[in-house]
Design goal:
Length: about 80
Amino acid sequence: MTDIYTTRFSLAEAGESVLLDLGEVHYTCEVFINGQSLGKKVMAPYTYRIAREKLQRENLLEIRVSNTAANAYVYTTAFDQYE
């Protein structure tokens, strides 16, 4: 299952690079800025350095967070009979 989060943001002027910190992500994510992938992360830290060359006055940020099938079983009692 993949959840996609998007937002638009504006910058008053071009500055230095920006550090995007996603905090805790479970379990993989990919970040896009203005349609360009900044890469995938499969473990912490879930941080991305966005170079100022990739930023515009108006920007579209997209974050795709993917789960694994194993997460569906973390809080289930379906397997208790095998203990």
